[in-house]
């Protein structure tokens, strides 16, 4: 007996590519709606990537940010002109340039950080709490940023709570071992 796969009619409300595009639009609107941000979301991503990998190459920035090579080259040139970053001769390769934050770039990044976090919170608040970590993990897979461990996604409060729980469990295990050793000695 042959199993025939049923095909459903195409619908935008079930199209992954369309829904991701709409979600991206919503995310960009959250960032753009914040007062006091003097950089774009893409510039923020570049500044954050440079802070995480001070002295990185533009090729590394392409991989980290997902911005295509030619767009990133134009952005880096404008951001350097605006005093947000600077390019220096790379230490290991005389042909390459390394990218560094300037004081102005660090200031812009730090002033935008609370607003980006607020935008992220607005996005995540639309999801049930028990699905937020999975959502971020799935986005990481789709963005091909590697394996995001769930521990990295926990809030500092969640991490502290887990540590206390784990430490308490270790103490209990240790005390059981101590009791066993004590019985063996007796």
TrEMBL record:
UniProt region (Disordered), positions on chain: 159-186
Composition bias type Basic residues, residue spans: 170-186
PROSITE patterns: HTH_MARR_2
Composition skew (Basic and acidic residues), residue ranges: 159-169
Record-annotated HTH marR-type domain positions: 1-144
Taxonomic superkingdom: Bacteria
SMART domains (alphabetical): HTH_MARR
Pfam families per the UniProt record, alphabetical: MarR (PF01047)
Protein name: MarR family winged helix-turn-helix transcriptional regulator
Phylogenetic classification of the source organism: Bacteria, Pseudomonadati, Pseudomonadota, Alphaproteobacteria, Hyphomonadales
